[in-house]
Design a protein that fits this description.
Blueprint (H helix, E strand, L loop, with lengths): L3 H5 L3 H33 L3 H8 L3 H8 L8 H10 L2 E8 L8 E8 L2
Antiparallel strand pairs: 1-2
């Protein structure tokens, strides 16, 4: 656990570095989710109008999905798309002895 003294002693540079790392991590995670959804859709050979029907979205939104417009999708929205496609998410938080090396593992499994 981080003490209040540790938080106060962090420099603005360290805080900014962590914020940038968080932003980059979220961007990569969103891209991974978007890629996974598109691979599944590729396997189903759905056209954009079929994607819209199956995923409950508009055709322009389906177009954004197929054209990798990552800025149009949140992590939550992409997880919802993958859930509709039959996948579930499990999160496992594994703190380590080192404060800097915490790990969260995300597993995506197909629901049968």
């Amino acid at each position: 656990m981080v003490s209040s003294a540790e938080v106060i002693n962090e420099t603005p540079d360290i805080i900014k570095e962590r914020q940038e790392f968080a932003k980059e991590t979220q961007q990569k995670y969103r891209q991974d989710l978007l890629n996974a959804a598109n691979r599944i859709i590729d396997d189903k050979n759905w056209r954009q109008d079929e994607i819209a029907i199956h995923l409950g979205m508009t055709q322009p939104r389906a177009s954004n999905l197929r054209n990798n417009k990552i800025e149009k999708f949140s992590v939550q929205g992409l997880q919802e798309i993958l859930t509709i496609l039959g996948y579930q998410f499990t999160f496992d938080f594994k703190p380590s002895k080192s404060r800097a090396a915490h790990r969260i593992e995300v597993k995506v499994c197909f629901n049968k």
